[in-house]
Amino acid sequence: MHCKLQRRESLKESDPEVFDLIQRETSRQEYGLEMIPSENFVSEAVLEAMGSVLTNKYAEGQPRRRYYGGCEVVDEVEDLAKARAKSLFGAEFANVQPHSGAAANQAVFEALLNPGDTVMGMRLDMGGHLTHGSPVNFSGKYYNVVAYGVRESDHLIDETEVRDLALKHRPKFIICGATAYSRHIDFAMFRRVADEVGAVAVADIAHYAGLVAAGVYPSPVPHCQIITSTAHKTLRGPRSGFILAQEGYARAINKAVFPGLQGGPHMHTIAAKAVAFKEAMQPAFKTYATAIIENARALSAGLISHGFNIVSGGTDSHVMLVDMRAAEINGKEAEAVFDRIGITCNKNTIPFDPQPPLVGSGVRLGTPALTTRGMGTSEMTTIARLMKDAVQSRGDDAKLRSLREEVRELSRRFPLYDYRLI
Ligand code: DSN
Fold this sequence. Notes:
By secondary structure, this protein is of the alpha/beta class. It contains 16 helices and 15 strands.
């Protein structure tokens, strides 16, 4: 058995409906500009590992302590992924089994808390994550959540607020990390405050993991006892999660992931994580991560030059939040206009947003995916102009069609996968 082309031919013949849908999605990714900051394009090596026969194997348990026979090969796969994760981030312990970032976070709650215990996390509507204590999520339903936000004056996390809340409510752990916070997170500060109240400091670096691995964003490893992440955002691996920790938390975390929450680990995805970790160790990955931030800064500066406001005034990372109110358009409308010209992003609340989450006053933009395609700062300047033109011409169908053509032309210059068919 060999070769991905043979595999694709067989899908085309056996299930043309699914094959066509995959082709349509390939085309959408190829001829649009992907600016959702949590998305990226994996290498063909990662795709190959994910599409491998490892998906066939059950391997509940840990390497050499499984509940199934025949695990001698997948044991080595998991060992390799764990060793690479530890080496990449300089961590003492890794669990690479979480199916996603949400599952990784849930495992930390399961490992450290009992239902009803108090925990601190960042408010979702100010940049936090659903699983950091949102009332509509397990984390907010079964635990007593105390939420911190950002300052109204500069949209930065406020140490005084974090410390005051921690001293008052004595959480068992404090989780930092965000989905829409563009600045450096002060992991040392979170550890200091956690120590002061006897809490564990947890960092969720799902968004920043690739930047952290490359050394272009601060690392929480020297500070926070437990770190959760996804593999598929700036780290450019398969869609999944993992957990790093100090050795003393290893047993509790392993037990929380399995049998606490999950059954069989997805060995094909774990192999793909190993591939991505190795890719992130290469010097070229540091160049890539550096370019992500340069591109984000160029995009942010371009948007500011066209009169848009960026929350906190700019970015230190891959992400930015654009406050659309100056352009007299809300986030939902802006997302729809950008969609029409082939720029994919997401509406987002901005701090102290007067709009509900399904409308939002902002859009969230990121540069990891476009940087993977090889785009640089001059393309970011062009994209800032395209966004400005789209917003200004939102009632003009002919102009939007011509902007869509410009986007298509730009994406043609930076092809994605070699085997694209359309
Ligand atoms: N949904 C992810 C994001 O878009 O940031 C976070 O899990």
